[in-house]
Each structure stands twice: as C-alpha cells, then as structure tokens.
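Check the record.
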Amino acid sequence: MISPETQAALPEEDPLFRLLRQLDLAPDASQRATAQAIGVSLGTLNNHLRAATAAGLIAISERSGPDRRQRFAYALTTRGAATKARLTDRFLERKLAEYDALHAELTGTESGLLSLKKRTPLMLPNLAPIPELYVSYDSAQKLKVSAGDLVSHDLTPRQICDLELLMNGGFYPLKGFLSEEDYTGVVNDMRLADGALWPMPITLDVSEKFAEAIELGQDIALRDAEGVILATMTVTDKWVPNKAHEAEKVFGADDIAHPAVNYLHHKAGAVYLGGPVTGIQQPVHYDFRARRDTPNELRAYFRKVGWRKIVAFQTRNPLHRAHQELTFRAAREAQANLLIHPVVGMTKPGDVDHFTRVRCYEAVLDKYPQATTTMSLLNLAMRMAGPREAVWHGIIRRNHGCTHFIVGRDHAGPGKNSQGQDFYGPYDAQELFKKHEAEIGLEMVDFKHMVYVQEKAQYYPANEVPAGDTVLDISGTELRRRLREGLDIPEWFSFPEVVTELRRTSPPRSKQGFTVFFTGFSGSGKSTIANALMVKLMEMGGRPVTLLDGDIVRKNLSSELGFSKEHRDLNIRRIGYVASEITKNGGIAICAPIAPYATTRRAVREDIEAFGAFVEVHVATSIEECERRDRKGLYRLAREGKIKEFTGISDPYDVPASPELRIETENADVDTCAHQVLLKLESMGLIAAH
C-alpha cells in the first residue's frame, strides 16, 4: 500500500495521468523528450519520476548505449498500469464535463452526451474499438521481466478462459476479477457496485494455502499451464465466499447435479481474490487460429465489410439442418448479417469436443451466403446457468460488435436436477433477457423450434405446422443412439458432411474405448472379478485391455501416497487420468480401487466420459462378509486402531446411488459375477453380441 507521505508527493491527477500515459507509449524516450511531451520542465519531470517510483507506479532501469541522454528506460509496474487505467476514466470524465459546459455556453442547449458514469457499454457504437486491459508491447516486455519476481498463481483452464475475455474486452466493463463488493452485488442482484448490469461472478478462486501468503495490495503474476506469464493482478480483495448462497442465487439451486455447482463445491478454490488485471499477452491457441477473433478484431472486420447489423448465434453443438433454417430465419427477421459464434472453451461435460464441432461448422459454412455470414470462435468457459447465462452471453456478444442475439429454448440449460426435473423452464432465459434487453444493448431474436414437415419436405416453426401434416424430428438423445449403434441418419435431419465428421469421432459403441470402474470395500471381490473380466474381454479380442487394480496402481503409480483423504483422492484421480487416456485411444480400462468418495468418482466419470463410456460397478459385499474373507487381518487391525483411516471402519464409504451395475457376491461365484458385467456391457452396446 502507498504511504500517506508518498501519496502526498505524487503529482496531481492530470499530470500523473499524462506522465503514466507517456511512459507507457514511449518507455525508452529521453527525459527531455518526455518532459516536452507532457509539457513540464526537466526539474518537474525528475520530481514526478522520483515520486512515481517511490509509489511503485514505475520501474527504472539503465540502458547501455552511446547517447547519455537516454541512459534510463521506464516501465509501468502492475500498480502503475492499474492507476493509469483508473486515471484515464477520470480524465475523460472531466473533459466531457468541460465539453458539456462549453456546449451550453455557446449554444444555450445541453450536449446530449451521457457522462461516463452513466454511460453503459450499450451507448458505445457497436463498431467502435472497445477498451482492452493490455499494456503496450514495449511495456509488456519490461513487465514480463519484473513480473518474474512476483508470487505466481497457475491458472486453471476455466480461469484462463475468463482472463482472456477480461483482457481482450469480451467481459467489458470488468477491469479485473470482481472485488468482494462487486461479487456480492452480482450474486444477489446481477449488478456491479456501480449499478452496471452483470449476471455472472468472475472471480479468481485459489486455495487457502495460497491465499494465506497473499496480502492486500500485493501484485501477483498469472501464469498458464506452461508457466507463461499472461497478466499481473493487484490483489485488492480476499474473502471466503458462501458457495451455497452463490449456487442458490446464480444457478437457482445448491444441487451438485448442476455441473457448475459441482465445480463450485468440489473443484474451485476455497478463497476468492479480486482486483484489477494488467494484460501482458493473450493465451496461445494452436488450433483454428484463423477462426479466433478478439472483440476488436471482429469489430474491425464488421467495419471493413460494411456490416452494421449483426445477429449472433450461440452454439456448443454441431450444426444440423434445423439450425441452418433457424439462423436463416433469424437473420431475415432482424434484417442483419449472421455471426456463427460457437463456444470452444469449457462446455458441459459430455458435449462433443470442440475440434469435431469446428470441423462440422467448417463443413457446412459454404451452405450459407458468404457475403452475409461469417464464423468466429469464442474461448468462453460456460457455466450452464440458464437465464443468467443468456444475459451474460448477450453482453459478451454486444462487446464483440453484435446488435442482435438468438436466445434459444432452454438456453444454456444443464439438463435434469437431482429430482429428475429441468433446472430451468424452457423460456426462462428469454423472459430474463427481454426484461434487461435495453441494458444489454442487443435485440433478442426468439428461438424458433424448427421441425421437418414430411408432406412439405421442408422445415417449419413448430407452431406453424399445417394441421394434419406429419412432423419428423430427431432429438439429441436419438442422434447419439444412432451414432452409437451405427444407424442411418437421414439427410433431412443433417448434412452428410456433418454426419461424416461425427462418425469419425463417434464410431459405433462396440468400437469405442470405455472404462469399467469397480468400487467397494476392501475384500469385496473387486480385484478378483476385474481379473476374470479382463481375461474374458481379452479372449473376445478386438481392443487392448488394461487392468488398473488398486494394489498394482499403489505399487507402480502411487507408491509415495498414504491413506489420507487427500492422498486417496489423488490416487483415484491418477487412476482416472490413465483410464481416460486408454479410453480416448480406443482401449478398455478396468479399474478396481476402493474409491470410497462419491465426489471423486464423479470427477473421474466426467474426465472419462469426455472420451467414451464409464461403467460404474458397485461390488456390494457387506462389511461383515469382507471381514470374514479377510486373510491379511486388516479389518482386525483397523478395529484395534492399529490401521488408521480404514474404509468402512474409521473412514466412510459413500455407497453409489445409481451405478450402471450392482453386484452381490456373497452367493455367487466369480465367473457368474464377471458374466453379469459382460451382459451389462453388451446391453450398453459396448461389446458386440455374438
């Protein structure tokens, strides 16, 4: 924090703003050139530089070279960049007030311009450049060096998505991760502290251990998975959130069946940090680079091609013929050009991977008029928050230069809750969006549920189908079934090019990789049945089979781990990772750990289901029978307290609520039990019937 003495030595706001702006624009300029640029004497400049350096706003380094007038180079620190951004807003506010006063004096009328405090982003022309959080290239190179000495936080994949959209203006007007005051307003009322509409908490969640080492006012470096510094952040707020309250308000229920609520409770850090961000460089994407555009790049493109009205289509699924008809109608209704803007960040677990989806989009893009349609990829981490998500998506598309937005039926819905009911009503998103449409700054285009009318051989909105005509439709579930079983997908439903791409990555289930995950007490028979199953599957042939038994993994993969909850979770996550790689590459993974915790099993399921089927088998042998079978005497030692944290004795076991298969072993032999698993795999289409 800046001391009162140092604060007092700093120049007033306008001179300080001009100084920081000039040093950011020309960090290598001589002192004389800098003084001339900001209109002060050399002596005054030196005083300003000393005060700004003492306040931690700039860093001074020596330069080698023959010109002694350019001995020093100047770079804005993280705090300096944040201060410059704040002073820029206040400078513009004052200049606007001066303009208003002069306009009134000369004309006797008001200018009609809104003040910056009252101006929302919707008042900005949709094609004008939008503010970003990046410093200049030269400042970024110097900031990279100085940031190397800061405490670092390694960003999660979701945080990288959030940071990218913070820095490039996709999350405008946010200037960083939310403060506690902003967070409270967003959670409770969808409002930032200044009253601006914002529906989704954008927070930097960290572990308790990391948070303990951070002080308010401290600068930290934000790094990607490879250790590259993407940005710095000045930590202004640190707090422990009420996650149950956040889940209720943002997602409508504190129900872990919701993927974002599960993430909130079981993956997100326990402490939130807030504060302004200074962007150094954007994350590197090696895939589909030509299809990725920042908000300003899209706005520049729209200016170049002369587009004034643009309707955005949000999607996280492949495009079929119904989607094409929908987007055509939406563009005609809005009399606008079409931006297909699919999400390629984190989506719902189980969604088609973005590589496949983008190939599908590119395959059908020529079905659209080239002069009026374009496509760009959005690296957004979706929350599946239904109505709030729709408002959020609208704000993001406005920042990308769009004027209209298609809001779908059950927009960003996560599916069923724990009671088997939809989390949100089919039109809740449209209603909330319409309520805030003016503030969002986009016009909503209603989603028209399109169905194929057999007699007319064309698509109609569901509410416009002629009486007596036959309606044909294929649900997402039915499409997945047909892909899984290798059945025909009619051309009236999808484009042959899309079907070809989907079949490449979704072959019939009998040719896909999968994981069989046994869970149960120690001594329940998991390993024995798993071994028998492995032999039977190897006998059948066709795919490689790998057994990841608990004892084998402990010896070869997790030998350094103990039996604490933390270590057990880590062991199961390791097993899950290996199983996911086997599944991804078309093999069969058989896992047989105890895996006592439901949340960990769910996390493993989500990791594996991104690549293939996950079959949970609960070996439901009673604890009494397990004790009776115990040849090593482990249960006896556990009851005597000689073995700590023993599942079923001194440590809990979460019984699977709905496994794919539950096996009773007490009155069945091993061969019978293994055959039950085979029959289940056959019924699921994972192995071919003989």
